[in-house]
Amino acid sequence: MRGTVLYGTGDIRFEDTPEPKITKPTDAIIRLAATCVCGSDLWSYRGISPVNQPTPMGHEYCGIVEEAGCAVRTVKPGQFVIGSFFASDNTCPHCNFGYQFSCQQREFVGGAQAPLLRVNLLKKLGSPVVRQRPAETAFEGPCRRDLKGRTFAGGRRTP
């Protein structure tokens, strides 16, 4: 599998990266349909934040669940999900008050600029945000949105 890796200021490489695997019962593997370049990605690229080791890039994403761990009850293979840079457990006091980004168990999600991504903490409904999407409208290949807000995936317009 190939993914985007940041090595240092201005040094981004597209190279072979290991395919993610389920390592915890609360993991899911997502086949990514689209990822974003976030402003925080640019801090390290521009040298504002240090890069101490090669770092897989990308943490804002959407895609289809490929596989789910045995403790995952909120998503299932074939389901469309949208996620961001932190996975939260939705069980701690912060999550219960709606501040999932301050979750006591949060985990940073990185490496979303690749075909597959492992996301943890899916035991309870939380991050990533889960939304049902019929299989016939699932993304296939690269997608973009035009100026009128219409989405195109894999070279064809989606409903």
List the helices and strands and how they pair.
Blueprint: E1 2-8, E2 11-16, E3 28-35, H1 39-45, E4 55-56, E5 61-68, E6 80-83, E7 86-87, H2 93-96, E8 107-108, E9 116-119, E10 129-130, E11 143-145, E12 151-153, E13 156-157
Antiparallel strand pairs: 1-2, 1-4, 3-5, 3-9, 5-6, 6-10, 7-8, 11-12, 12-13
3D structure, described in words:
This protein has helices spanning 39-45, 93-96; strands spanning 2-8, 11-16, 28-35, 55-56, 61-68, 80-83, 86-87, 107-108, 116-119, 129-130, 143-145, 151-153, 156-157. It is mainly beta. The strands form four sheets. Strands 9-3-5-6-10 form a five-stranded antiparallel beta sheet, with no helix packed on it. A three-stranded antiparallel beta sheet has the order 2-1-4, with no helix packed on it. A three-stranded antiparallel beta sheet has the order 11-12-13, with no helix packed on it. The model is unreliable at 124-132 and 137-159 (pLDDT under 50).
Shape: globular
Q: Please count the helical segments.
A: 2
In terms of DSSP E residues, the strand content is 25-35%
Task: Give the termini separation.
Answer: 29 Å
Going by CATH, the architecture would be Alpha-Beta Complex
Mean pLDDT metric? 79
